[in-house]
Design brief:
By secondary structure, the chain is α/β, with parallel strands linked by helices. It contains 14 helices and eleven strands.
């Protein structure tokens, strides 16, 4: 082969090689939706994502982007990314208290039409309300939760009905009568006060949702309860720095007889402190006024769609499917605990 032909062949071969990678780069790929949500340990969210992706028959995949367990840190990370127009965020596990902020900032897309109808269908009114701002739905209710009174059934024959009764019982029990609650200055303390206020017949805002209410009598009553528990020898010495997890750990240590906390403490105690779990009872959050049922705030997360998502239509579809079932992964620790205790809790 002459030199000129050899050079021509080399150039042609090199040209083919240069084209092949380009074809690979432009080959159609299955869209990948990123779901930013707190790192839930039972595997329920991962299972929901897998079922949802499977139901799409290969039209998209869902990848979990774990956020911190601390709600304040979750919000901070999301706020920075969303404010910067991050298109990596498709689905957001939104704390129920973020709805107005995220909607007002333009960080999430509104749910409309059939998608909104499906998001509301079969959900509690309070859960739907937590995802609503200015009469528009900004997220799909996904999980909901609320606090209970947890107590040691081997030390307390009948759970107290009111806060005053609980504090009195705890003081009589002495060293074993500690009360665990959330006293650190963060959202948990706000939840504590608002629940006490509502249970006393008051509210932070008036009926129009615009004007501050804080009627004097119920507000004083709520603050009196907070003052009494803060000054009681039954209060944990670290109350001012306690969040949900600190309360859980202290109760699992066995020295406390009462705890205000969410239901995640039950499977945790079963796994980490079975001797304590054996004597864990639960009851309704204590009333502030005797004979008047308590009213408490709800927790949980809703599913929002990032305003800068590259696949908003698929994200709405996936969020609608994901919310249908979010149960602990079969065989997981949380699943076994729930199965063992189903019908009681």
């Amino acid at each position: 082969m002459s030199n000129s032909r050899r050079i021509t062949a080399i150039l042609l071969f090199g040209g083919v090689l240069s084209i092949l990678p380009g074809c690979a780069e432009h080959a159609p790929q299955t869209p990948r939706l990123r779901w930013y949500v707190f790192d839930e340990p039972s595997g329920a969210f991962l299972q929901a994502a897998r079922r949802c992706a499977g139901a799409s028959q290969g039209r998209y995949q869902i990848e979990l982007a774990p956020l911190p367990t601390d709600a304040d840190q979750q919000r901070e990370q999301l706020a920075r990314r969303l404010a910067a127009g991050d298109s990596d965020i498709d689905i957001i596990g939104m704390d129920v208290i973020w709805t107005a902020e995220f909607a007002e900032a333009g960080w999430v897309l509104p749910w409309q039409g059939e998608a909104a109808h499906k998001a509301r269908e079969g959900r509690l009114d309070s859960a739907v309300a937590s995802a609503t701002y200015q009469r528009r739905l900004w997220a799909a209710p996904f999980t909901t939760n609320t606090q209970l009174l947890w107590y040691r059934s081997d030390r307390v024959a009948t759970p107290p009905q009111t806060w005053d009764e609980m504090i009195s019982q705890a003081e009589v029990l002495g060293d074993k009568g500690g009360i665990q609650a959330q006293g650190e200055r963060y959202e948990g303390l706000t939840v504590f006060f608002v629940a006490l206020l509502a249970s006393a017949g008051g509210s932070v805002l008036g009926p129009d949702g615009e004007q501050v209410s804080l009627e004097e009598t119920p507000t004083r009553r709520a603050l009196e309860v907070m003052q009494r528990i803060a000054n009681s020898p039954a209060a944990d010495p670290s109350l001012a720095g306690a969040r949900e997890d600190q309360a859980r750990l202290a109760f699992e240590a066995g020295e406390s007889s009462f705890m205000i906390n969410y239901t995640f403490v039950w499977p945790s105690a079963r796994a980490n402190a079975p001797a304590v779990a054996e004597h864990m009872g639960w009851a309704r959050w204590p009333a502030v006024i005797e004979g008047k049922p308590s009213r408490i705030t709800i927790g949980g997360i809703n599913l929002g769609i990032g305003a800068h998502s590259r696949h908003p239509d698929l994200a709405f579809e996936a969020a609608t499917l994901s919310r249908l079932r979010a149960e602990p992964a079969p065989g997981s620790q949380a699943w076994r605990a729930a199965a063992d205790h189903r019908g009681t809790l």
